[in-house]
Amino acid sequence: MSSADPTGGNAEDNARVKRPPTEDIERAAGRTIAGKYVIRAPLGSGAMGTVYLCEHALLPGSRFAVKLLRADLCREPDQRERFLREGRVLLGLQHPSLVGVRDLGETEDGQIYLCLDFCEGLSLTELLERRGALAPEDALDLTQQLLAGLEVAHRAGIVHRDLKPDHLIVGVDEAPDPGAAVGAPAATDAADDPDAERLTVRILDFGIAAVEEPGDDNDLTREILIGTPRYMSPEQAWGNPIDARSDVYAVGLLLHEMLTGTAAVQGQSTKELLTRQRIAQVSRLRDHMRPHPWQRSLERLLRRVLTRDPNRRLSSARAFRDQLELIRSGVPVRRQGRRWGAALAGIAALCMFVSGGTWLWLRDNPEANATPQRRVEDSWSPSKPPKSQLDERPRRSALPYACPLCGFEGDERRICPIDGVRLRARGH
């Protein structure tokens, strides 16, 4: 269990609520919670309360993580409901990447507690501080585990909204000892050993998770700012309605940090971080990641995940996980072009196909390419004689009279048989 604010308090909570004195936490050893959980040691404290390593009074050697809400916060309805929400959310979710809930209740003096499985390991924050950037193989494996757990939560209509390194516990996947007690710790802190077995990750703190229920005015559609600014999605930083794609964005930031050892979004203040998140200003992977055959594919994938428009982002944790599996199997991620670019390419291909087909048809049918001869049919009109009559007109001679229209000549003044007008003497 991590000691870095395991109760889920963020920067805003820490500024509003004072933490309990350290000496009070240390003196809690030996105290019993709800008459059944004996406190052995504090695991960490935050703005919401304290997490203790406990042993069940009837199960000697067992270990559990018990979150105890501060007494003064138990009297605040909003804080009380937030703490109980985490228990209800986790109770309905079952997955190896999610922390299991063992008990939820209230002590004799009115404090609410939540009993969770004890997670042996380090927070992702502590792991990165000790080891720096992870090997791409480990980073992708942890990310796929994380996405698999989120997929279960998203199917239940739950959005975490506060994914960050402090809320991820990294341990080692070891075969359980049949004789070991429930919650028994591993023999060594293998998460700190680069040569250890496969790393595993578990998601903590669903305290500010939003549950989508029909007809419920929940925080998914309410325009409020909730979460940690460094790991917010752009729509979350603007206070807009969010869905599962907001968690997908946060996982992209976490993958970037695991590959590089540094946060993808840098800023000195909350305002600066929110500004950078709203425009999706993320540092380039190539500037911080060690050279690797997967680097180009990972850059292209992260561009699709860390895009500002959620409609152009990978739509689900499952889609993200499938893309990572393709990269691990050696299939490169293709560059994503603009939508209109693909449409223009399709239109150009269609035009080439039609023109090519037309050329082949004309080549095989030469008679169809011949220019048709215009047919002039004989027709009669009062102002123009039929063509046949014009061709049969007598040649011009030196006769004294001629038609002023068609030039028909005659030796006397009479009516022109072609145009129907009287012949005129030449020169008039």
Could you characterize the architecture of this molecule?
This protein has 428 residues and is α+β, with helices and mostly antiparallel strands. 32% of the residues lie in helices and 14% in strands. The protein has helices spanning 11-16, 22-26, 77-91, 124-131, 136-155, 234-237, 244-260, 270-278, 295-305, 317-328, 339-364, 387-391, and strands spanning 32-33, 37-45, 49-56, 64-69, 101-106, 112-117, 122-123, 158-159, 168-172, 199-203, 210-211, 401-402, 409-410, 424-425. It has a six-stranded antiparallel sheet, with helices on one face. A three-stranded antiparallel sheet has the order 7-9-10. It has a three-stranded antiparallel sheet with strand order 13-12-14, with no helix packed on it. A hairpin with a 5-residue loop joins strand 5 (101-106) and strand 6 (112-117). Helix 9 packs antiparallel against helix 10 (317-328). The N and C termini lie far apart (124 Å). The model is unreliable at 2-19, 175-188, 214-223 and 375-380 (pLDDT under 50).
Short description:
By secondary structure, the chain is an alpha+beta fold. The chain has twelve helices and 14 strands.
Number of helices: 12
Overall body shape: elongated
CA-to-CA gap between the ends? 124 Å
What is the tally of beta strands?
A: 14
Would you identify the regions where 5 or more consecutive residues have pLDDT less than 50? 2-19, 175-188, 214-223, 375-380
Order of helices and strands: HHEEEEHEEEHHEEEEHHHHHHHEEE
Briefly note the structural class of the backbone: alpha+beta
Strand proportion, as a percent range, falls in 5-15%
Mean pLDDT: 78
Range of helix content: 25-40%
The biggest beta sheet reads: 6 strands, antiparallel
- If you compute it from the alpha carbons, what radius of gyration comes out, rounded to the nearest whole angstrom? 41 Å
Strand order of the largest sheet: 1-2-3-4-6-5
